[in-house]
Amino acid sequence: MNPRELPIYELRDELTEALRTENRLLIEAPTGSGKSTQIPQIVLDGGTAGPGEVVVLQPRRLAARLLARRVAFERSVELGGEVGYQVRMERHVSDKTMIRYVTEGILLRQFLSDPKLKGVSTIIFDEFHERHIYGDITLARALLLQQTRPDLKVIVMSATLDAGPLRDYLAPCRELKSEGRMYPVEIEYSPKRIDFKHHPVWEAAADAFETAIEGGAEGDVLVFMPGAYEIARTVEAIRGRKCAREFAVLPLHGELRANEQDAAVGDCGQRKCVVATNVAETSITIDGIRVVIDSGLARIARYDPRRGIDTLLVERISQASAAQRAGRGGRTAPGVCMRLWTEKEHAARPAQELPEILRHDLAEVVLTLKAGGITDIENFQWLEKPDPLSLERTLTLLTDLGALDHDGNLTEVGQKMVRFPMHPRYARMLLAGQDYECVRQACLIAALTQGRGILERNKGKQTRGQRDDLLGEDDVSDFKRLMRAWVFADKNGFRADACRKLGIHGGAARQVKPLYERFLKIAKSEGLTINTRPPEDEDLQKCILTAFSDQVAKRRDQGTLHCEVVHGRSGDLDRDSMVRDAELFVAAEIAEIEGSRELNVRLNLCTAIEEEWLEELFPDDMDAHKKTIFNPMLKRVVTKRWTEFRGLELDAIFSQEVDEQEAAEIIAAEVIAGRLDIPKWDEQIERWITRVNCLAQNCPDYGIPEIDDEARETMVQEICLGAVCRKDLKERPVKKVVKSWLTPAQRDMIDKQAPEKITLPSGFGCRVRYEPNQPPIISATIQKLYGLEESPRIGFGQIPVVVEALAPNRRPQQKTTDMKSFWANSYPMLKKELKGRYPKHEWK
């Protein structure tokens, strides 16, 4: 198609005119309208953006390369000349480059070396609706730069977008919209749910392909799969169908060579079936597609708390993403989209993907911002603020890694780390690898921790024995065995039969290799020395410790796998760990489990360390403490001296030399908390206190002081004075201390006005029961109550006593404070009922 026939060209004049007066534009145009290739050319050729380079930000490396190649072809120039691209580890630009396609992190890093972006006239943010974290951050930096460079043009482009929040963020900005030209696409759902565990997704896709082609579908086919492995299996499955003979079945993903990628998007002289990742969802348009087969899956980056980094997980795509994929079938003619899920399942999918800022690890972004002079990260001009806990976790990690000091300022180590295009944890590991002459091993360890584990668990005694024979046993680090296992798999070409013997997952091991090579390439590009000789164990251990110091753990004792972990966590060492006898170690992988009482952590991929290394490597994080405490095992107060590393107690020494006043307060606190008792503080003391409080509460005019919680605490502290252990409380004069709360006159008043007993007319001495916040009560059989015509009163006659009348068997019959009414009304009925049962008792 002639580029000038693309729908986006309807905006050419309006865009050129807008750039004369505006420096912020928001362009909305549907997928396939040509905005990714044509807008940069319109901006450059119009001349209204001013002199300088047009930089186009793309979310994906593959898209950046293919788009640059396409635009270079349209302009009849050599790639790397007027039109070029730059992605991690790959650069095709020159002094002549005027349109430069880059991945989002590239421009953010350019801000570090060139904060004013000299020579850049326009920044175009493509596919902004995908809300990649680097796109958000780079846009914020660009808007900040416009305050001192109003000539800089910022254009934000999207296929579909909730423009409201973005419009407010960009304000003032000019909005342009292209409706595009889309043909209808018929959506077909699977009639029943497909279980990909039993019917692999690639077979389901091949079935759909066969159905479509044998049903007479025209044009080319685009199949969406989550990753390179699934794509390879799908290509194989489709090629095996008879109806695919007239098709060129081609893969498309970022790990392919450039010529293989070009073949997938170019004209190959026959019908083709392209099996692609979601790079073909919005970023790249493939001409001739009229059939879309959608697995409904994508590899989506999310923060993985087990590894403390982002990992790519296969997940179901959102409804919005599915709509984007379906639209690929209606760009040049009416098409069809076959979804490998049911309509009911579709309704249950989320409407949109969460923005990356809300699901990504922020460590690399925050480190880059700090290096760019942004000191107040929390109040940075976020398009969407990250979760405060996530931000706090990130700042803690960067501090633990030594990238930031304890005041949040970038350190010299942090300045070195930011040069590495990788997660800060591994940047720190590679720098440590240089110090300890183990860069090669650091690169392999970094690669091994990215994906799924290569050693399968629970493989039985025979496999474990073969592992021990071929890989050896090592109590230094789980990584040593893991590295040997990977080297074994690599030497055997990752063959399933060889790997199976040792319980090695061949596919997972194979995926480690490109990552390992990439880390080695980065290390070389940053001037690190790749060692050829294996390092000493201690050097490797220290290197690993430097990268994972936020996950240092200590065994509680040798009889348990339970451990304390820095920053107040706890967890269990993996039973299969090779360092299970180590007291102190560092875990490269953790699994956080929310428990009922605390956050538990399962500790895997562990490396033994020594306490003195913590003092050597992290002196600012070591704290010495001294505290007087109650030791529950010894039942005494002791002085505890200990060292902490980031809140993790390393060692402790106990001494019985304590300050007596401080010891008394601690002993008293244990008594008040109910963990210690004072033997002579018995029921008799408690009854006396209740009598005091009864009189104090009911007869306030007589000045009796109430014994409340504060008074009890004061009494306990006085009793405990001079005590340092439980034994010292045995003979304490409790009665003397408690009763001294009142004057002799007040104590006499208690004896008379809140008596322990009341003598009834029958001559029976009846004990008075006092309960907190309840009226006093006496209990007696009816025969002993004869002659009691009035209810008794105590406390200067102000406190009525409740009388509880008992049957001869001492079972309660009635409670009253009105004896006259009792004798007149209740007693005749009780007498009638009880006299027959107890005829030998006196009944008046």
From TrEMBL:
The UniProt keyword set, sorted, is: ATP-binding, Helicase, Hydrolase, Nucleotide-binding
Molecular function, one GO term = nucleic acid binding
* Transmembrane portions of the chain: none
Q: What sequence ranges are listed for the domain Helicase ATP-binding?
A: 16-179
Give the species this sequence originates from: Tichowtungia aerotolerans
Source organism, top-level taxon: Bacteria
Q: Which InterPro entries match?
A: DEAD/DEAH_box_helicase_dom, HA2_WH, Helicase-assoc_dom, Helicase_ATP-bd, Helicase_C-like, HrpB, P-loop_NTPase, RNA_helicase_ATP-dep_HrpB_C
What name does this protein carry?
ATP-dependent helicase HrpB
Task: Please state every residue range assigned to the domain named Helicase C-terminal.
Answer: 205-373
What Gene3D superfamilies does this protein map onto? 1.20.120.1080, P-loop containing nucleotide triphosphate hydrolases
Keyword Electron transport belongs to the record: no
Query: What is one Pfam family matched by this protein?
Result: WHD_HA2
